[in-house]
Design goal:
There is one protein chain. The chain is 24% helix and 23% strand. With 238 residues, the chain is α+β, with helices and mostly antiparallel strands. Among the domains are: 65 residues, Antifreeze-like/N-acetylneuraminic acid synthase C-terminal domain (Type Iii Antifreeze Protein Isoform Hplc 12), CATH 3.90.1210; 87 residues, no CATH class. It has a 5-stranded antiparallel β-sheet with strand order 5-8-7-6-9, covered by helices on one side. A two-stranded antiparallel ribbon has the order 1-2. It is elongated and about 120 Å long. The protein starts with a helix and ends in a 5-residue tail after the last strand. About 5% of the residues have low confidence.
């Protein structure tokens, strides 16, 4: 009888009583009520990114060094401060000093010679912002004695496509009226020498300043006023 009573008591025992009584061993390596500890993930070093960053820093340093060297290679030269017409006497206010990169292809006047240019004449038209060269100035008075300067206004169709230069030998030729018949004889011409050329402007006209003999200046000016002239560029071979 005693055995049966004990069996019934054991059958109705509370869950976990076996563990409390030492019959069931506790879970190994874990404390009750605590979550498991997870090890932090191991980071991987990105050696490629680090190498790229080092390369960029090196390139930046090299570019900065080259820029500083380039800036250090500049030299002071004479520049034109305002537009100067051909033949005009240069004044101090017409000139300025500019720092430019040293280039064997350029031959501007050094800034140290600026004062020696004052009082000389522009051999050609000098636009503001351009660098001044020795060939752009002269001591010759324009127009020289015995010659006059005439401005010849021409359209692109009345000019050669070649860019005109100071000193070019040209001929200004009479042309027939628009839609007219070509002349039966050789048209009249007046020989001249180019001093400068300006344009074309918004109307499409270019003005070529030429010197001609004094006794032909009035005749040329009258012909130019009709618009029935064309310009011929002769050989530059000397």
């Amino acid at each position: 009888m005693t055995v049966n009573a004990t069996t019934r008591a054991d059958r109705h025992a509370r869950p976990g009583s076996e563990q409390a009584a030492g019959l069931v061993p506790p879970a190994s390596g874990r404390r009750a009520g605590r979550p498991p500890v997870v090890a932090p993930p191991r980071t991987r070093r990105r050696t490629g990114v680090l190498a790229a960053g080092v390369s960029l820093v090196a390139l930046g340093s090299l570019a900065a060094a080259l820029l500083m060297q380039r800036v250090g290679d500049t030299v002071p030269v004479v520049a034109v401060a305002r537009d100067v017409a051909a033949g005009e006497v240069l004044e101090r206010t017409d000139l300025a000093v500019a720092d430019v990169n040293s280039d064997p292809a350029l031959s501007p006047v050094p800034a140290s010679k600026l004062d020696s240019l004052v009082g000389r004449r522009a051999a050609v038209a000098l636009p503001a912002g351009s660098l001044l060269t020795e060939q752009a100035v002269t001591d010759v008075v324009l127009p020289p004695t015995g010659r006059s300067m005439v401005g010849v206004a021409l359209t692109l169709a009345q000019l050669p496509a070649e860019l005109l230069r100071a000193g070019d030998k040209v001929r200004i030729v009479d042309t027939p009226a628009a839609q007219g018949e070509p002349p039966a004889t050789t048209p009249a011409t007046i020989a001249g020498e180019v001093v400068s050329s300006v344009g074309p402007d918004e109307t499409g006209l270019s003005v070529v300043n030429v010197t001609v003999p004094v006794n032909q200046a009035a005749d040329l000016a009258a012909r130019v006023a009709t618009g029935r002239v064309a310009l011929i560029l002769d050989s530059r071979e000397r």
